[in-house]
Design goal:
It contains 12 helices and 9 strands. The chain is α/β, with parallel strands linked by helices and 300 residues long. The protein folds into 2 domains: 160 residues, Rossmann fold; 120 residues, N-(1-d-carboxylethyl)-l-norvaline Dehydrogenase, domain 2 (Orthogonal Bundle).
């Protein structure tokens, strides 16, 4: 991509994903002003040319503001809290919310922004730390088509698969659907594989069979080898996965849609969270069934 020039963009949220995304914007020539609670992350971005905003409200004059925050509470605080950005924004400005929030929250924010004439896209991301680092994220956007088209140069600096999914909330809905399928796959592995081991199968061999046969999935190929090595950190946290389950489960609840598989898998996530595994990878839910059956999916 050619180097870009123009007005400075605002970027709020320099976590594991956000920091890499901001770096890619700078690498593509965009001028950035960044805000985060971490002084180390701010210093890191400043060292490659970003301006530092100590208060998110300092970014209110930026024509485009990008958010990459953990969830509903953080986004609400930044946008509509006591010192929120929304009252300071003017018609014609654009906010690209690349956080993961619930669909209902995204639609609530769209309504508030529309009342002020401020453009908003809910544009969550998928692709993990590698995708954020390499600029190959999948970006799923919901909102007005015209706003999406205007945002493409920014999205293209951070992602490879950039999709307009429909109106307000459709970006978050798309991510929830994809992640719930992934999460259910992990819940099934966590339950079934310990049963196989408790019934006499070798942990390494059953892993090889699953990952070379019809039972394989992206989830099994990614997580089972890590579990064999007893690695339960560094991938996708249990707490984040639970947010996805709640997101889609909330829709099923309010629309009176039977969702027995989602409900059953959510129960496993709840139990794992209560056991204190929220900061570990979602694969740590296998520890529940290993403990129950007194087995381990581990290399001998």
């Amino acid at each position: 991509m050619e180097k870009q020039s123009g007005t400075r963009l605002g970027f709020i949220g320099l976590g594991k994903m956000g920091a890499s995304m901001a770096k890619n914007l700078i690498a593509r020539g965009f001028s950035l002003a960044v805000n985060d609670i971490s002084e180390d992350r701010l210093a890191e971005l400043a060292s490659i040319g970003a301006a530092v905003a100590r208060d998110s409200r300092e970014l209110a004059s930026c024509p485009v503001i990008i958010l990459c925050l953990p969830g509903n509470n953080q986004v609400r605080e930044i946008l509509t809290g006591g010192n929120g950005l929304l009252p300071l924004l003017n018609p014609g400005q654009t906010v690209l919310d690349m956080s993961t929030t619930t669909v209902s929250f995204a639609r609530e924010m769209h309504a508030l922004f529309a009342a002020k004439g401020v453009r908003l896209l809910d544009a969550p991301i998928s692709g993990g730390l590698g995708g954020a680092r390499d600029g190959t994220l999948t970006i799923m956007a919901g909102g007005e088509r015209d706003t999406f088209d205007r945002a493409l140069p920014y999205f293209s600096a951070m992602g490879k698969n950039i999709l307009y999914m429909g109106g307000p909330g459709c970006g978050q809905l798309t991510k929830a659907v994809n992640n719930v399928l992934y999460n259910i796959s992990m819940a099934a592995l966590a339950e079934v594989v310990p049963i196989a081991i408790a019934s006499g199968l070798d942990p390494k061999q059953i892993t090889e069979v699953i990952n070379s046969s019809t039972g394989r999935s992206f989830c099994s190929e990614f997580f089972l080898p890590r579990i064999l090595r007893r690695e339960f950190t560094g991938a996708y946290a249990m707490g984040s996965a639970y947010k996805d389950m709640i997101n889609l489960g909330e829709i099923a609840l309010y629309e009176a849609i039977p969702a027995p598989v989602i409900e059953a898998a959510t129960l496993t996530y709840k139990t794992a969270l209560r056991k204190g595994y929220g900061d570990q990878d979602k694969s740590a839910m296998m520890l529940l069934f290993e403990d129950l059956l007194n087995v381990k999916l581990a290399e001998k």
